[in-house]
Design a protein that fits this description.
Structural class: alpha/beta
CATH superfamily of the largest domain: Mur-like, catalytic domain
Main location: cytoplasm
CATH architecture of the largest domain: 3-Layer(aba) Sandwich
Number of helices: 16
Strand content: 15-25%
CATH topology of the largest domain: UDP-N-acetylmuramoyl-L-alanine:D-glutamate ligase
Strand order of the largest sheet: 9-8-7-10-6-11-12-13-14-15-16
GO molecular function, one term: magnesium ion binding
Distance between the termini: 67 Å
Mean pLDDT: 95
Pathway: Cell wall biogenesis; peptidoglycan biosynthesis
Low-confidence stretches: none
Radius of gyration: 24 Å
Largest sheet: 11 strands, mixed
EC number: 6.3.2.13
Keywords: ATP-binding, Cell cycle, Cell division, Cell shape, Cell wall biogenesis/degradation, Cytoplasm, Ligase, Magnesium, Nucleotide-binding, Peptidoglycan synthesis
CATH class of the largest domain: Alpha Beta
Bound molecules: ligand UAG, adenosine-5'-triphosphate, 2,6-diaminopimelic acid, magnesium ion
Amino acid sequence: MQLKNLFYKIPLLATSGSMDTDVTELTMDSRRAGLGSLFIAVRGTIADGHSFIEKAIQNGATAVLCEEFPTELNPSVAYVRVQDSARTMGLAAANFYEQPSRKLKLIGVTGTNGKTSVATLLFRLFRQLGYRCGLLSTVQNQIDEEVIPATHTTPDAISINQLLTKMLTHGCTHVFMEVSSHAVVQERIAGLTFAGAIFTNITHDHLDFHGTFDNYIRAKKGFFDQLPATAFALTNVDDKRGLVMIQNTAARKETYSLKTLATFKGKLVADGLFGLHMLVDEREVWFKLIGKFNAYNLLSVYGTAVLLGEDSTEVLTLLSGITPPPGRFEQVVSDDKIVGIVDYAHTPDALQNVLETINNLRQANDRGNLPQVITVVGCGGNRDAAKRPIMAEIACRFSNRVILTSDNPRNEDPMAILEQMQAGVPPIDFKKTVTIEDRHEAIRQAVAMAHPHDIILVAGKGHETYQEIKGVKYDFDDRAVLRSTFIERANH
Ligand SMILES: CC(=O)N[C@H]1[C@@H](OP(=O)(O)OP(=O)(O)OC[C@H]2O[C@@H](n3ccc(=O)[nH]c3=O)[C@H](O)[C@@H]2O)O[C@H](CO)[C@@H](O)[C@@H]1O[C@H](C)C(=O)N[C@@H](C)C(=O)N[C@H](CCC(=O)O)C(=O)O
Ligand SMILES: Nc1ncnc2c1ncn2[C@@H]1O[C@H](COP(=O)(O)OP(=O)(O)OP(=O)(O)O)[C@@H](O)[C@H]1O
Ligand SMILES: N[C@H](CCC[C@H](N)C(=O)O)C(=O)O
Ligand SMILES: [Mg+2]
C-alpha cells in the first residue's frame, strides 16, 4: 500500500520523501523491520522507539512514522511526522488492513475483573448460536476452532488488525475482545470500530502503571469516550463508577444490574456448588458458574446477546449450559475429598470475592464442624506493589491458614515481594500464616495441612502454565501441581 493511502484521513504534521513509497508491512520494533517496512517509532515505558529509527532502516525499512524527525534524513526513506505515533499507528493499521473491524461485529470488554470471563462466555455462546467467532483474551486468542497463543490481554494495534483480518478470512462475523486499561492508554485500540462495549467493574489494580485511581478510571472511560454513535455501551450500574464510564460516550447507553432498575435486570435467588439460580428479566434460570460475581458476568453476556439481536429465550437456554473458562474457580478434588480450587484472582477485589464465595459454600460436617479454608497466594513482580499487603490481609481475613508464596516474581526479588505481603498480615494472624517462596512447596504444604473436605484455594495464576523468574518462563501449572501432590498424598 502506498504511504498516502496508509495515511488516508489521518492528520500529519510534516512529511519528507515520497508519499508514493510502497509499504509492505508495519512494525513498531526495529528488530522486526524488513524490506519495505514502515517503522513506527513509539515512546515506550523503557525505551524510545525514536532511537531505533536508524536500526530499522538498516534492516530494510523504507518509511518511518515518528513524532520527531531524526537530525539526518536518509534520502531514500520517506518520513512522516505526527503528534502521537502510538495513536497514528492504530489508525494506519486499520487503513493498511482495510478496516477489518468495520466488517464484523467487534465487542470490547473492559473492567478490573471479569474481562476474560465475559469475553470467553460471549465467544462460547455465539458459537453455540451458530456463528463463526473470534476471541482476543488473556488466556488465548481464537479464530473459531484455531487457538493462537496470547502474549497480552489486548495485543498491539498491528496484531489486532492482523488477527481481525484472519478472522474475516475464516468467515467470522463476531469478535469478542478484552480491552485492558494499558491498551487504552497505549492506543492499542485506536482505529477500531466497535459495535459494542461492556464495563464490568473497577477496583484497585495497576496503580504502578496509572499512578492514581482517578487515572485508572479515566483510562477505562477512555474506551467508552471513543465509541461511535452506532455502538452500544453496556454498563454495570451496581458498580460505583458504572455511570461515570458512559457519561460522555456517543454510544447508546444500556445498563445491567442485580440491585436496581436497568435495561437488563437480574436477581440472585441462590448460589452454591451447583452454580447459580437467578431471575433474569423475570425468568428463572440455573447456571453452572459459581460465585455471585459470575451473576454479573452472565447478566452482561445476556444483555450483549440481546442487544446484538439474539432471541432472549434461546440465549438463556444456551447460557445455562455453559462452563467457566479455564483457571476460573477450577476444581481439582483429591481421592480423600480435599477440594482444590485454582482461581485467577490476582487483585484484592477478586480475591475477596472468591474467598467470600468459598466461605459461603462451606458446609458443616455431621459434628457441626466447618471445613478449613487454606489459601495459597502471591503477588506478581513488576506490577502494582500497593495491592500486596492488602491481598495478604484479605487472605488472612477469610482463611483458616494462609501460605504466602511467589506468583511470577519477574525481575523483582521474590522475598522482597513476600515481605511487602507480610506487612499486611495482622499480628493476630501471624500464627496461621507461613511464607514459602517456592510455589510448588507452598502447594505441597497446603495439601499436607489439609483434612478431607477442607478447601485449598490456590489463587493468582489460574490458567497460567508458567512461573516467570528473571525473564525465564519455567513450566508451572497450579492445577497440575495440585493433581500430582494429591497423588503423592494418596501413595503415602
Ligand atoms: C508496560 C507495558 O505495557 N509495556 C508494553 C509496551 O512496552 P514498552 O513501552 O515497555 O516498550 P519499550 O521496551 O519501552 O520500547 C519502546 C518501543 O521501542 C521499540 N524497540 C525496542 C527495542 C529495540 O531494539 N527496537 C525497538 O524498536 C519497541 O518495539 C517499542 O515499540 O509496549 C509493548 C508493545 O505493545 C508491549 O509488549 C509491552 O507490554 C509488556 C510486555 C507488558 O508486560 N505489558 C503488560 C503490563 C500489559 O500490557 N498488560 C495488559 C493487561 C493487564 C491486565 O489485564 O490486567 C495487557 O493488555 O496485556
Ligand atoms: N465480575 C467479576 N467481579 C469481580 N471479580 C470477578 C469477576 N469475574 C471474575 N472475577 C474474579 O477475577 C478473576 C479474574 O477473572 P477474569 O480473568 O475474567 O478477569 P480479567 O478482567 O480478564 O483479568 P485480567 O486483567 O488479568 O485480564 C477470576 O478468577 C475471579 O476470581
Ligand atoms: N494481566 C495481568 C495478569 C496478572 C496475573 C498474575 N499471575 C501476575 O503475574 O501478576 C498482568 O499482566 O498484570
Ligand atoms: Mg483477562
